[in-house]
Amino acid sequence: MTTKEEPPLSQVPRAVRVASLLSEGEELSGDEQGDEDEDEHAYEGVPNGGWHTGSLSLPHLPSGPLIPELLPHSMDGLPGGPTPITPVIKAGWLDKNPPQGSYIYQKRWVRLDAEYLQYFDSNKDAYSKRFVPVACISRVAAIGDQKLEVITNNRTFVFRAESDAERKEWIQALQQAVADQRARARLSSACPLGVLSPEPPDRSGSLELRGFKSKLYVAVVGDKVQLYKNLEEYHLGIGITFIDMSVGNVKEVDRRSFDLTTPYRIFSFLAESELEKEQWLEAMQGAIAEALSTSEVAERIWAAAHNRFCADCGAAQPDWASINLCVVICKRCAGEHRGLGAAISKVRSLKMDRKVWTETLIQALCATVTTADLAETQALLGCGAGVSCFSGDPEAPTPLDLAEQAGQTLQMEFLRNNRSTEVPRLDSLRPLEKQYSVVLPTVSHSGFLYKTASAGKLLQDRRAREEFSRRWCVLSDGILSYYENERTVAPNGEIRASEIVCLAVPPPDTHGFEHTFEVYTEGERLYLFGLESAELAREWVKCIAKAFAPPLAEELLSRDFDRLGRLPYKAGLSLQRTQEGWFSLIGSQLHAIFPEGPCEEPLQLRKLQELSIQGDSENQVLVLVERRRTLYIQGERRLDFMGWLGAIQKAAASLGDTLSEQQLGDSDIPVIIYRCVDYITQCGLTSEGIYRKCGQTSKTQRLLESLRQDARSVRLKEGEQHVDDVSSALKRFLRDLPDGLFTRVQRLAWLEASEMEDEEDKVSRYQELLAQLPPVNRATVKALISHLYCVQCFSDTNQMNTHNLAIVFGPTLFQTDGQDYKAGRVVEDLISHYVVVFNVDEEELRKQREEITAIVKMRVAGTASGTQHAGDFICTVYLEEKAAETEQHIKVPASMTAEELTLEILDRRNVGIREKDYWTCFEVNEREEAERPLHFAEKVLPILHGLGTDSYLVVKKYQSMEAMMLYLASRVGDTKHGMMKFREDRSLLGLGLPSGGFHDRYFILNSSCLRLFKEVRSHRPEKEWPIKSLKVYLGVKKKLRPPTCWGFTVVHETEKHEKQQWYLCCDTQMELREWFATFLFVQHDGLVWPSEPSRVSRVVPEVRLGSVSLIPLRGSENEMRRSVAAFTSDPLSSGDILDNSTVLEQA
Question: Where in this chain does the record put each Ras-associating domain (predicted)?
C-alpha cells in the first residue's frame, strides 16, 4: 500500500475534533464524554495538528524509499527549539489491534522516527494516543494476514498493513531504527549497557487532567511534558503523548488548577494542593525556557575539537560549562559542580544563559588548552593565587588591570569570572563539608533554604512547615537561583537582584520555620524563605541585601534591619517630580538614603505628627510628617508598598504598656496623654466634677482600646465623646501603667518627701526626684500637672480645686488603694508649687493663660463649632497650592499667630526665607473665589472656628507686598478716597438697588471708618462702617460679572454677629494695591509687616551630616526661588486674559 498524499495546510478544515489521548477501549463515557464534547466547541477553528494558512511555514522533507512525502509533524517544524528536529523515517495508515485482543481493528496514523514509534487517531492530530521509544523495542516480526508485531519487554503491539509489500517496508524500517538506536547506545560512554539512560525528570507525579477518569502520571523532562497512564508505564517508557514546550504556555486558573496551553489543545490540570500547583508551574516554566533556548553558542564552542566532550566524564556534546574554570561539562557533571558552590565553580548553560556568553568568554573557552598564557593563569589560580592581589604597580594594582593594560582580553575575561572564587580545601581526615563563600563585592553565596511557592499578595496567614520545600539556592552574578537539590543542573527558578525591590525579615516564629525572610520583586511576586539557624538566615539576608542594594545605600546594611528596599518618594521642595530613594526600617526608625543630598537623620516613627494614606486605591500615597520635614511615599508597586505600609504602621504604633513604648509627641509626651488632656482643656474645664465623675464603663473601655492601638489616628469630637468618658480613660491608662508614672523605684521616695515640713526643702526634694525620672515620665508629669493647674483655676465653676484633684489623682498616679494620704499630698504639692517645681517662666505661663482664656471665651460666646477636633486643634494647611502633595497637618494652640503658623509650615518643609520674601498665610474661600492674607499678628484659632467647608488656609508668597510697602512709605496722610465700582449682596443686605449690577460710588477710608457716597459732591454718606469690623478679601466671584478683574469682597460683621457682604472693583491693579494697603494700615495701626529683622528673614539651615531635612535646598538663590515657585506658575508670564485668579496672585 502506498502512502496517501496529504492535503496542503490551506485545505485543512477549521472544524476539528479533540482527539482522545487514551488507548483503544478506554474512550470516555457518560459525564466524561459530555465534557469531551464540550471541549470540542472550545477548540473550534483551531486545527489539531495543523495551522491556518500562513501562520507557520513548515520545512519540506525530501521523499525517499522509506520516507514518502508526508505532512511533517507540526512540532517538528518549529524553529529555535533545543531538541534537534528528528526526521520522519516512515509514516502511514495501519490497522491496529486493541489491547483486549478484539478482532475489530482500528485505523491509526502511525509515524516512526529515530526516537519514537507513535500512532494517532488522525494524520492531522498533534498529540499521539500512544508512543513507544525505539530503545524499548526488543523485536519486530511478521505474522499471518499482513500483520506485524512490535514487541517490547512488557507488551506487544499488533499492526496490520494493506499488503505484504507494505508490511515488509514497515518491518525493515523498524528493524533498521532499532539497530541504529543500539549502535548509538554502544558509542555512548555514559551508557555502558547499550541503552541510553533516560534523562532524569525535572518533576514528575500524578495529576488530574480534565476529560480523564483517573489521574495521569506526568513528567517534565527537558523541554517536554510527557503524559503516562500510570507510574508503571512511566518506568516502562511507554506513554500516551508528549508536549513540546516550545509552543506551550502555562498559567494558573485558581487555587489548585492550572492550564497548559498550546496552539492545538488546552490541557487543564488539577494538583493536590496550592503548593504542589506552584511547583508544577515552576517546572513547566523551566521547560519552556529550555525549549526556547538556542544552540548557537554551543555550536560555536563545539567547533573546537577539545570542547566536544565533557571535561569530567568525556560525554559527547556537553551543553554546560564552568565559566570561571573555562571547561565544558555535561548536564550530570554540571550537577556535581553546582554542589561545590558558586565560589568554586560557576556553572552556566550553553543554550539557556544567553546573556552570559560574551564574545570574549566564548573565545576563552575555545582557547582553553591552546593558549599557553591562559593555561598558566589557570594553574596559578588553582595553586591559590589571589585574583585581587596587589601587583606592585600603582597604575595597574591588580592582575586584571595588568591584563587590561596589556590588551589580553581572554585573560581579562578569565580573571573577571574568578574574582569571587575560592580554592577548595579538602581535609582527608574528615568528610567534605559545604563551604559558604565570603561576601565580596560580586556577592556569591550558596546553601540550602526552605522555600514556599511564590505569592501575588501579602502573607496574612502563618505558613506551616509542611508548605516549605527544601531547595539548594545559589546567589551568584546578581541572580538568586534555586534548585531541586545540590546535584540538579537546571534551576527550578531564579530571581534577578536587579528585579528585587524589597527584602523583609519577619519576627521569629512568624511561620513554620523560626527564621524567615521575604523577597519582593518588580513583577509583584513575593518569595518566602526559611531556616532554623538564626546565623545562617542573617548571612543570607546580608548577602541578598548587598546583591541588590547599590553602593549609595551601603550604609543601610551596617545594621540588622526589619525591611530594606527602594521606593518612589517626594519630599522637600521637589514635589513636582518623583524620585527613587532607599529605605530601611529598624525598629521604630525609618532610615532614608536619597540620590541627592547627604545621609539623613532617621524618622522617629513613634514621634510622627501625622501618618496618613492619601489618594485612591490605585494611586495611594503614604504621608509621614515629622517636625521640620514631610515625606510622601508613593505606591507605584502595590505588593511591596502594602508591605511597607503595614510595617511602618506597626512600627509607629504603641509597642507595649509602658510610657516609653507609646506613640510620642514633640516633647516626649505620649500622644494618648495629649489627646485626652487637650480634649478636656477645650471641652471640660468648666464641666462640674471633672475627673471626679466617672464615665460609662463600656464607652471608656472602647475609647481606651482605640487610643492604645493608634492614638495618633483618634480624633475626639465634642458630641461624640463625653468629657467624663475621656477623663475616665485617662485615669485608667495612668493607673494601668506597669511601672507607674513615678516608677516603682522612686515611688517610696516621693511619698516620703511629702512629709517634709519645710516647704523650700520639700520643693527642692521634688525637683531632685523629678530630675531622676526617665525623660518620658518627667515630660508626662509636667504636662499632667500643668493641665491640673489649669483645671483648678476654674474651680469656681467645675468645683475641682487643688485638694479635690489630689484626692482623685493621688491613688491613680501612685497606684494605691486610696488609704495612703501621702499620695494625694504629693499631687497637691506639685499643683500648688507648679511654677517653682517645674521652673515655669513668665512667658510660658502667660501663653498658657492666654490659650485657656481664649478657649473659655469662645465657649461662653457660643462660637465653638461643636464639631471641631479635640484639644489639639489639628488644622490642614497647604503650601503654595491646594494639593495632596502640599498638605500639612499642624497643631494650632489658641495663642498661635498667622506669622507663627507660616514659620511652622516653612520649617517643616525646610523653606528658607530670603530678603524680600513675603511669605504669608492666606484664608481662601472657594465658593466666593476670594482670599484674604492674614495679618502676621492675627490669631489663627478664631479663624479656624469660623472656616466653612469650602474654605482653607494656604501659605504662599505675597507677591504684591513689596509694592504695597513702597506705596505706604511714600504716601502722605493715613486716608484714601476715590471712585470704585460697587455692588451689594442683595440676599444679605436687601437694600433694593434698581439693578443687581455694579454702580459707581465714591469712597473715603480713614483710621476709624469706611464711608460710601453716591457721588463726589455728596455731603452725607449713604453708608458707613467701622473699619475694625471689616474683613477684606481679594477677588470677586465670576458669576457676578465684575466690570474689571481688580476687585475685592468686603464682609462686615455686626454686633449681633450678622454678616453683610458687598463687592468693590478698581480700574487698575495699582489702585487695588493702594486701597488694600490702606485697609491693612488703618486696621492694624500702621504695622503692616513685622519690623523685627528676625521675623523678616530666617537663616537657611546649613547642610551638614545628620541634621537636615529630607531634601535640602541646593544651588544659587535664583534656583532656590524657582524651586519654591515650582508649585504654581506666575499668571503674568502667560499670555492668557487676566481674570480674578490673576488678582489673587498679585494683589
Answer: 871-960
